[in-house]
Amino acid sequence: MVSTSTPREKAVFIEQASIQGRSLWDDARTRLLRNKAAVIGLFILGALVLLAFLGPLLWIHEADVIYRDRVQLAPTFEHGHVFGTDAQGRDLFARTLVGLRMSLMVGVVATMVSLAIGVVWGAVAGFIGGRVDQVMMRLVDVLYSIPFIFFVIILMVVFGRNIILIFVAIGAVEWLTMARIVRGQTIALKGMEFVEAAHAAGVSRAAIIRRHIVPNVLGPVIVYVTLTIPVVILAESFLSFLGLGVQEPLTSLGNLISNGARDMEIAPWTLIAPAATMMLTLFCFNFLGDGLRDAIDPRDR
Amino acid sequence: MLGFTLRRILISVPTILVIITLAFFMMRVAPGGPFDLERPMSEEIRQNILAAYGMDQPVWKQYLDYLGGLARFDLGPSLKFRDKSVASLIAEGFPISATVGLLAISLALVVGTILGSAAALRQNGATDYAVMGIATVGIVIPPFVMGPILALVFGLYFGLLPSGGLDPLRGMTPDRLVLPVVTLALPQIAIITRLMRASMIEVIRSNYIRTARAKGLSARAVLSRHAFKSAILPIVSYLGPAAAALLTGSIVIEQVFQLPGIGRQFVQAALQRDYTVVMGVVILYASLIVILNLVADLLYASLNPKVKYD
């Protein structure tokens, strides 16, 4: 059958044959599921995401309703204030969920911004190579040694504290490592035998990119994305803690922690609840990221 | 070595220039100047104020003036504290920040290398797991959570240490530095411990360590004379990033523990739009980081015989 087929059919045959085998992703999934810490992390993270996005809609208290007679109530089941209330008499559980939602959103959106910049920068540098590559990566080196969090702070001061700017500014800071990873992968892949082999077998350029290049670049990128999200969440919390991040009436975990730190002497739960939520989230992302790295990048094991 | 040093310095200079330029022009495009009060002032007064601060000049002239000032360590006047220059504000805050930072990195280096080595020598034992568990917690808990918690526990519940501020008469007394230094050092202890453990595990498996053991050296001598020297190298190359992390962390620490260092001045200046102070501190921080990176690189090159200087 193979002997009489056209190159195109051969390519289809090769594609189907590789689907029947265990793909890169099957292997990765098996390895990931074997990693208990990563699975638990993924599970808790899923629960946190559901809570953050559905919780505020379903919970009996709204995050911004003020109960004047219940200011700084310790955690109690009476009235359903399971995390207590804050200095203004707002339900802390509802606020923690809303804050978590904001932190997760900042984490994901800013990481996507860094992903977009980093992938384009790295891929261009890697593909073109030569002098362009040198200049582009030298620039990355220079930018690496600049403490960007200060420039994010300047940006916040200069342009006022709006949330879009937080997304973009933090994202624009975190793209450097992404660019390095993508460039390295691109250069490595360009010269790989299996890419040439696929080409020789008549697989179209688009199919090579789809089936060989993208999956191989995707692995490290996904790992890095998972590890960048907690870094971004921390960066936003850092800004909010200094009063330069998300502004009222919006709130984030960093904002809540900042308020909690101020009131901790009389109402320690206002610090503990958001701080514990954030640490749990960061733990989960880190475990998941480490698990993904072990699963996707077999060289490391 | 000399060529290597010179080349490394040559890379640092443009980096600092980029930082200064970036900071300068970001401040210039800021909408709303520092002199925009609620009450509008007459055009004449406005012009006079702008002229007094040199802001009526073309931008390129202002930029060159600023660079010229920098060369003489003149960072211009503060826009909010009328009688103070940026340089004098920094001179007030810097000793405090530097003391806390130096103590923190020293603490982190000592504790981190000891814990890391201990964990490596008992790999997969109870000590190892305990140390690594604590190290992971240290990395996940950011200083702005750890600081308030430590202040709460040691300052308020146990009443052992003052929870913030400087001694009104004697300034920086040891008891007031304990909590800030520990909080600042904790994440670095965690990272250095992990680095040290990994590199020590690799080193003690290498051939020359086995040779040293085989020729009859005691375990102690092998560790101190041979293993430690090469295991410490990754820590040395981490010193640059550590310096950056410490400087960033110090902003939070000074806020949490109410220390009047440059980190706190920076945040207050940022919130009050005192542009010249913000710029001065950013340039100082960035230059420090670049210089410390340079020092760490040179130190690494001089310690590691594998580094070639070409």
From TrEMBL, chain A:
It is a multi-pass membrane protein. It holds the Pfam family OppC_N. GO terms for cellular component: plasma membrane. It comes from the Bacteria. One of its GO terms (biological process) is peptide transport. InterPro entries: BP-dependent_transpt_permease, MetI-like, MetI-like_sf, OppC_N. Keywords: Cell inner membrane, Cell membrane, Membrane, Peptide transport, Protein transport, Transmembrane, Transmembrane helix, Transport. The chain crosses the membrane at residues 37-60, 102-127, 139-157, 163-182, 221-246, 266-289. It is found in: Cell inner membrane; Cell membrane. Gene3D superfamilies: MetI-like (1.10.3720.10). The keyword Membrane applies. Residues 100-289 form the ABC transmembrane type-1 domain. Belongs to the binding-protein-dependent transport system permease family. OppBC subfamily. This is Oligopeptide transport system permease protein OppC. It comes from Marinicauda pacifica. The lineage of its organism: Bacteria, Pseudomonadati, Pseudomonadota, Alphaproteobacteria, Maricaulales.
UniProtKB/TrEMBL annotation, chain B:
Pfam families: BPD_transp_1 (PF00528), BPD_transp_1_N (PF19300). The chain crosses the membrane at residues 9-30, 96-121, 133-157, 177-196, 235-257, 277-300. It is found in: Cell membrane. The keyword Membrane applies. Residues 94-300 form the ABC transmembrane type-1 domain. It is a multi-pass membrane protein. GO terms for biological process: transmembrane transport. PROSITE patterns: ABC_TM1 (PS50928). One of its GO terms (cellular component) is plasma membrane. Keywords: Cell membrane, Membrane, Transmembrane, Transmembrane helix, Transport. PANTHER family: DIPEPTIDE TRANSPORT SYSTEM PERMEASE PROTEIN DPPB-RELATED. Belongs to the binding-protein-dependent transport system permease family. This is ABC transporter permease subunit.
